[in-house]
Amino acid sequence: MSQPVSPLPDRGPTGRRTAKGALGSTPAKRVERPAPLRQVVYEALAELIINRTLEPGQHLVEADLAEYLGVSRQPVREALQRLQSEGWVDLRPAQGAFVHLPTDEEADQLLSVRSVLETHSAKLAAGRATADDVKRLRELQNTGLKALADEDTEGLVAANAALHACITELSGNAVLAELIGLVDRRVRWYYTPIARPRGQDAWHEHEELINAISAKDAGAAEQIMTKHTERTRQAYHERPDAPRS
To answer: pTM value?
Structure first.
């Protein structure tokens, strides 16, 4: 029988919030076996970064992460190295690992690419969607509206990703779906701090988009998605914790 994890301090000696403290405020997430351990640990850490349990700029201590996940330090070390190679983590000589702090330029580049891909996806989806497809989109829309009413940030991010993924699927373009899949995780990372501020506006835009797809109006779907993704990009730069010049 595993021993309960001891309470974790919120602040380090300098008074700054530590990754250990951030993890201590959430239930321990023991990794599942028998999947390859390094892969499971990688996925677990990536998700903690994406949902901002581990915040940009936060120091990542191998021992703390290993304790939280219930594993040894070796798979944690391997996962951090992989996350560093993918741009999620910065490894600093003599300092250790830190969650990557994205620049405005990085956000602009990714969200601009996302806009191009998803705009084309919406246009194609409007030409192919059936009545059953539209029904599925409306169900996903209702899930998002419920999360919005519940002020559930994690639920909002998941619902937003699911609705956009469904539109991508309806496009019928496998290459487009693959390209969008490459940026999906980082889009969720950027979207998390603005999911609730975007709130009503974002889900109203989703409703307009679904109506355009239902009407098989490819031009309108394309225009609405362009507006939608651009407003998301703007909201990210205007978020309360954004750096000010």
So the answer is: 0.79
DSSP structure class, residue 6: P
Token pair in block for residue 152: 């559930």
Read off the tokens for 206. Answer: 């989703």
Tokens 């506006």, located at residue:
201
Q: Is 93 left (phi over 0), alpha (psi -120 to 50) or beta?
A: beta
Distances (CA, A) of 222 to 57, 97, 116, 196, 241: 36, 41, 10, 24, 31
Residue whose C-alpha is closest to residue 163's, from 134, 186, 192: 134
For residues 239 and 189, what is the distance between their CA atoms, to the nearest angstrom? 14
Give me the torsion for CA of 49, 192, 158, 44, rounded to 10°: 10
Task: Report how far residue 186's alpha carbon sits from residue 169's, in angstroms, rounded to the nearest whole number.
Answer: 19
The counts of H helices and E strands in the chain are 10, 3
pLDDT digits (tens, 9 = 90+) for 82-130: 999 999 999 999 899 999 999 989 999 999 999 999 999 999 999 999 9
Q: Which amino acid is at 92?
A: R
34 cis-preceded (ω within 30 degrees of 0): yes
Residue 94, Ramachandran bin (φ over 0: left; ψ between -120 and 50: alpha; else beta): left
**68 neighbors 2 (Cβ within 8 angstroms):** no
